[in-house]
């Protein structure tokens, strides 16, 4: 299956992401608060674009069940983005004004642009492959951190979000629909799917690395 092959091909990127200092320190509860605040603000921007990318997938699909699935996932992405404002931002001292005044960083801007361009320029199968790592890697990282994070970890509420059963079910559904489309794809489209999946895996690592470094536009 496409998903099994894609995960094996990108196992080294996932392992680099899992063991990145941001995620290791998040699990230990020692991640500096400025890095986490930086991450939350950028994630807020990203989630809006991710929801838009899912909405494009719904528009491109001709399967009613898949349209419902993509629209539902887009709605959840916006709900998570709003929960950042109503819960995490308040908890960690981030104001709406600060979010509005902080533009996407180079990596966040690249990732958002990649997903939107994928939606409008690529076949549905390739677009799904571009979005799948965000679902899948977040679940695996969330589960990995969840097993080692202490109950009093200051980031526990965020950790629990991505280690929950509802999110895991959504990931399984995304893997299934991507595999179904891959099964209908020829060699050229499959190659494009793998290229998009790998690029998204790279951007996932870069997103966390950028937050850890509190990166910004250099000029």
TrEMBL record:
GO CC entries: cytosol
Domain of life per record: Bacteria
Pathway: Cofactor biosynthesis; thiamine diphosphate biosynthesis
Keyword Hydrolase among UniProt keywords: yes
Single biological process term from Gene Ontology: thiamine biosynthetic process
Record-linked SUPFAM superfamilies: Heme oxygenase-like (SSF48613)
Family affiliation: Belongs to the TenA family.
Organism: Methylobacterium gnaphalii
PANTHER family linked to this entry: BIFUNCTIONAL TH2 PROTEIN (PTHR43198), SI:CH1073-67J19.1-RELATED (PTHR43198:SF2)
Swiss-Prot/TrEMBL catalytic activity: thiamine + H2O = 5-(2-hydroxyethyl)-4-methylthiazole + 4-amino-5-hydroxymethyl-2-methylpyrimidine + H(+); 4-amino-5-aminomethyl-2-methylpyrimidine + H2O = 4-amino-5-hydroxymethyl-2-methylpyrimidine + NH4(+)
Record's protein name: Aminopyrimidine aminohydrolase
UniProt gene name: thiED
Keyword DNA damage: no
CDD domains listed in its UniProt record: TenA_C-like (cd19365)
Pfam families attached to this UniProt entry: TENA_THI-4 (PF03070)
Record domain Thiaminase-2/PQQC: where: 13-213
Record-linked InterPro entries: Haem_Oase-like_multi-hlx, Thiaminase-2/PQQC, Thiaminase_II, Thiamine_Salvage_TenA
Keywords of the record: Hydrolase, Thiamine biosynthesis
Example of a GO MF term: thiaminase activity
E.C. numbers: 3.5.99.2
NCBIfam families the UniProt entry points to: salvage_TenA
């Amino acid at each position: 299956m496409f998903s099994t092959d894609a995960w094996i091909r990108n196992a080294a990127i996932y392992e680099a992401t899992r063991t990145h200092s941001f995620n290791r320190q998040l699990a230990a509860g020692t991640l500096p608060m400025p890095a986490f605040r930086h991450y939350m603000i950028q994630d807020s921007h990203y989630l809006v674009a991710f929801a838009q990318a899912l909405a494009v997938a719904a528009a491109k699909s001709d399967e009613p069940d898949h349209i419902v699935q993509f629209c539902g996932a887009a709605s959840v992405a916006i709900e998570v983005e709003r929960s950042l404002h109503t819960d995490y931002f308040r908890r960690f001292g981030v104001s709406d004004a600060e979010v509005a005044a902080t533009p996407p960083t180079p990596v966040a801007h690249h990732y958002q642009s990649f997903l939107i361009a994928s939606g409008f320029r690529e076949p549905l199968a390739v677009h799904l492959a571009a979005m799948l790592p965000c679902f899948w890697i977040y679940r695996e990282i969330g589960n990995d951190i969840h097993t080692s994070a202490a109950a009093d970890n200051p980031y526990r509420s965020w950790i629990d979000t991505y280690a929950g059963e509802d999110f895991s079910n959504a990931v399984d559904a995304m893997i299934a629909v991507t595999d179904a489309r891959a099964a209908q794809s020829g060699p050229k489209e499959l190659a494009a799917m793998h290229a998009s999946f790998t690029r998204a895996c790279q951007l996932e690592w870069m997103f966390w690395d950028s937050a850890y470094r509190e990166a910004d536009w250099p000029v």
